[in-house]
Each structure stands twice: as C-alpha cells, then as structure tokens.
Amino acid sequence: MAQLINGKVVSAQIREELKAECEKLKKDYGIRPGLAVIIVGDDPASKVYVNNKEKGCAEVGYYSEVYRLPAETTEDELLSLVQKLNNDDKIHGILCQLPLPKHLDETKVILAIDPKKDVDAFHPENVGKIMIGNYSFLPCTPAGVMKLIESTGTDISGKECVVIGRSNIVGKPQAMLLLQKNGTVTICHSRTKDLKEVTKRADILVVAIGKADFVTGDMVKDGAIVIDVGMNRKADGKLTGDVDFASVEPKASFITPVPGGVGPMTITMLLKNTMTAAKNTIK
Fold first, then answer.
1. Closest among 85, 18, 82, 89 to 281, alpha carbons compared
2. Does the domain spanning 140-264 belong to CATH 3.40.710.10?
3. What is the pLDDT of residues 67-113, one digit of tens each?
4. Would you please indicate which residues are annotated as catalytic (active-site) residues?
5. Against a cut of 0.90, is the pTM above it?
6. In sequence order, which ranges of the chain are alpha helices (DSSP H)?
7. Superfamily of segment(s) 29-114
8. Which of 190, 192, 156 is nearest to 174 (CA)?
C-alpha cells in the first residue's frame, strides 16, 4: 500500500517560504516580485490556469498583471506587448499562456521574452543552461516533480529512473533534472519497444504522456515511486492521471494522486522562479 505524496501540502510549505522571502525582499531592497501573464483567446483550461496564477501571486504578496487578449490579436500586437513588459522594471517574470491561437507563432513569442524574465524556462538560452546544469530557472512541472520526490526522503543517486514522455515542457527537462541528481535515466516514448520491460526496472517512474490510465500495475516494480503528471478528463467528467491508480497504488511505495499531486506544484514553482528573477535584479 503506497503512501500518497500530497502536492497540496508540499506546495503550501513552499508558498509560506516565498511569502516570507517576499516580505524580506520588500523590506531590505524595496523590491516586490512582479509577474505578468498573457492569455490570448478563451481556451477554458488556460483561463483556469491564469486565474490560479493570479491567486497564487496574491497569496504570496507578489505584484501581478494579467493581459487577457482577444483570439484575433495579431502577432505584431503580441510581440509589442512582450517587448513592453521586457522593459518594465516592475515585472520580473513574463509568461505567455500556451497554447496560442493557430495564427500565432509560439516559437517567435518564446524567443521574444527576455531570458532573464522567462519564468517558464522555455527560451532556448534557459533550456541550454538546464542541459549544462548552470541555470536560474527550471521548467515548473519538472521542478515540482523533483520537490515531490525530495519530500519522500528518497536519495535519487544511483536509482533507476524512467520517464515516459519526451515533450520539451516535461519529459526532456525531467530526465535532465534526474540525471543531475545522479539517477540512471531512461526516456520512453511511443516508439519504445517492450515498454513494460523498461518501466518494471524503474525505482522512480515519472509518467507524462497524456493518456488516461495508461500505466497499469503489471508495468510497475514493487516499491517504486510513481509520479503521475497526467491530467485527463473522463467521459463522466472526473479527472484522472496517466497512471491507473487502482492497480498501481498497491505496488508502489509512494504515489501522487490526480488531482492533488503534481498539479498544485506547477504554479508554486512558477512563483519560485519569479522570486529568483526578482532577486537576480539586485545589484
């Protein structure tokens, strides 16, 4: 029977620390961390994320601005707004909520954000820094996953770590972070042969593929730590992860629930990156 890794509890502890840091930064340097979030169009999931980011800023005492732009916003208008925020000293972090409407080039927008304010860590400069282990910011979800593993008291060094999924947002950076902690890392994807044979070796299994209940108990080693990054909505409206919780939970030593596992950590790590960006401006 696995112990649940409660993302809400871990997230709340980090937010308390950020709140105290925010007060200290204001008192010692007159700096209040500032985050600007841009959302284009009315994607329902994006709206929820943006509202949660706004609430998170208020909770820890940050300054925040939200730009809700219509779906027909042109690329020039969006890039012009990014440039304005790049030059605004009140803003330490800029986030453009993805996905963008199809007529807008996501790569162009990511490249336009000043790497020093890129609190999503999507800019190639920040991605490169993560690769060599000399970074200011980490992508929010993988960073949150590392905190959750840390909360179990597990030493990653020497462990067999398997990541299912190779996206630029989760899978690839997740593998890098586990590697930096001296894990022995395997990345699996849709072309992996004998997936079950690979996943059954994992001491730490991170699943981020966007397929509901994909990983089942027969794919998991006894005593493994299982981190479920997935967030899928079933036909009955209920949320479920990429891991079939009912069959995997009895075999794992620790497991994240969905919801309430990785989800709460993502915005908290965004707030942590914004704090880092603010501190980096201290002369």
1. 89
2. no
3. 999 999 999 999 999 999 999 999 999 999 999 999 999 999 999 99
4. 53, 97, 120
5. yes
6. 7-29, 44-60, 75-86, 106-112, 124-132, 140-151, 171-180, 195-199, 245-248, 263-279
7. Leucine Dehydrogenase, chain A, domain 1 (3.40.50.10860)
8. 156
